[in-house]
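[retry 2/3] Glycosyl transferase, group 1: previous attempt timed out, resubmitting with same input.
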Amino acid sequence: MSPIYYDLSEQFLSSGVKFKYYGIARTVMEVGYELARSSADVRFVVFSPAHDRFFEVDPNIGAASETGVCDPNIPAAAKPMRIRYSFPEPHPLRDAIYPLVRTVMKRICLSKWRRAVPEGSLREVDLSGQILVSLGRPKMMADYLVALDKQNIRPRFYPLIHDMIPLHEFAHPRQSMFARNFAHDNRIVISHAEKVMTNSRFTKAEIEEFSASGHLPDLPPVVPVPLPHELRETNETVDIDIPDTPYFLGVGVMTGRKNLECILQAMLHLHKTGRPVPLFVLAGAHRKRTVAYLDRPEVAPIKDKVRLLLNPNQASLRLLYQKARALIIPSHMEGFGLPLGEALWLGTPGLSATTPALCEVGGDLAEYFDPNDPTALAALIDKMHTDPAAYAAAKDKILRNHSSLRTWNNVATDIIATVSADSAKV
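[retry 2/3] Glycosyl transferase, group 1: success.
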């Protein structure tokens, strides 16, 4: 079989270590770790906008990594400034000045690279005809695919797509620039793909639906490679104080699609009906709109029951899950839903919205509620908080079915199998 080149550009280009614990960057990191430990011929690359080329890297894994899992082993000082390589539609003024802007920024990026990366320490890789697997964001993949096209470099490309959520804005009269760019980037990714992988069966169905409606191009074969439930143990130091009192946990929950409103309204319902209101711990990045929502007068009766914990590392996140009474994930839409899987992996009950992707993750091990019905969530919180028998039964069911949960190794193995099936035909 030909070697697999695995793209770590998401980690190289992402903004700081704290974001590498969550979402897409986290997926790139975890699968990279498993591939580095596998027996398959896997090599690791990053795209440099300073050169418009890929370089092979020797990633740090395990305790040697800055995250305790995996990183591309390039000095942070080499991180380039990002500028888009293409746009969904022409714009005369922008298109006239953009080449000059790109030239200036490319020189800045090249200067940063030369200062941070010893000359000759990384080898340029010509990916023409080579297998390239990428789990990163579509905008990063689209940038380097456009750059490679200009050099007539065409890899055998295997992307994993995480969600189609921004495309749901296309039904609205006022389309956002983010949604247009997202659709544009995904068109580039799909049109270059030999096969498309998705993080869930739900995302596969979404891609097929948007292709049929004309928002995306005709599809190559689409293969679901569901993400796991596993939350890996690392050697990091726990960097937060865990509450002494029983608490419910939210990870990355915010207003809007993530539906923090439902949790707070459920807590207010408990307060108004005289039921005990438990502590709610919200872990994740700082969001101004979350803080603004918590400052609303109507939230005042339960605001002292909400505690924000900013950017816990992976060791801290594990302990937060383990000590929590239950995880609450109220999203209206997700592509997968890592926090629900991680809670179940650590034996913590999950209270989940009846969102298709979340139902796929939680199966019959989670408890479900309508994300538009805070009273239904309030009833589940009350049960987990005040009914010891119900809580014990939920914990026991998860424990008895732990062997059915997926691991990051399962994901890496499935990716290798997906690529190998095509490689054997060549």
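[retry 2/3] Glycosyl transferase, group 1: The mean pLDDT is 93.
[retry 2/3] clearing retry counter.
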